């Protein structure tokens, strides 16, 4: 099942990408055939990627929301996955807070490194390098730079929802970014490290 609007059998952890975008992501991953993967922003695509890619030997996922982290851990049982909850350095608004307050916190996380410093920096503490990095969580501008730095030469970084203007400069400054077309829900952009 793909995305929240599908009328198929309800999946407890759906892929929040259109089938088109997920197929683009899967084509990239299949062509790179990474062994070590990193993602910021866990979810249904985490489970789907692991199921579709037997060549992956380790998949590190970082999540900032404790409730969502619990859902991912509950529904993704693949032993190759290490899903880490890393609390924000500046607390999330309470769940009963207005949508506007939550959106303001999300926007601040894109421009203020103090909001999710630990979340962005956690993968470096593992002492690993990665063949593939997926940025699909919060603080994307900072995760893009950090993830690219943690890539092995010839590794690939993918940004989901690349159509968002607030992330355009961060991905483009890496040089050689490719924005895939068409897209319907969230554009895929990729960069290969030299």
Structure in words:
The protein has one domain: Rossmann fold (3-Layer(aba) Sandwich). Helix content is 38%, strand content 20%. It is built from seven helices and seven strands. A seven-stranded mixed beta sheet has the order 3-2-1-4-5-7-6, with helices on both faces. Helix 6 packs parallel to helix 7. The protein is globular, with a radius of gyration of 16 Å.
Describe the structure using short key phrases.
disordered N terminus, 7 strands, single chain, Rossmann fold, globular
Cα(first) to Cα(last) distance is: 35 Å
How is the main sheet built? 7 strands, mixed
Number of helical segments with 4 or more residues: 7
Q: Unreliable stretches, pLDDT < 50, 5 or more residues?
A: 1-10
User: How much is the radius of gyration in Å?
Assistant: 16 Å
Named CATH topology: Rossmann fold
Mean model confidence by pLDDT: 93
Q: How large a portion of the residues is in β-strands, by DSSP E?
A: 15-25%
Number of β-strand runs: 7
Total number of distinct structural domains? 1
Order of helices and strands: HEHEHEHHEHEHEE
Can you lay out the helices and strands and say which pair or pack?
Layout: H1 19-32, E1 36-40, H2 44-52, E2 58-63, H3 66-75, E3 81-85, H4 99-111, H5 117-125, E4 130-135, H6 140-150, E5 151-160, H7 165-172, E6 178-179, E7 188-192
Parallel strand pairs: 1-2, 1-4, 2-3, 4-5
Antiparallel strand pairs: 5-7, 6-7
Helix pairs in contact: 5-6, 6-7
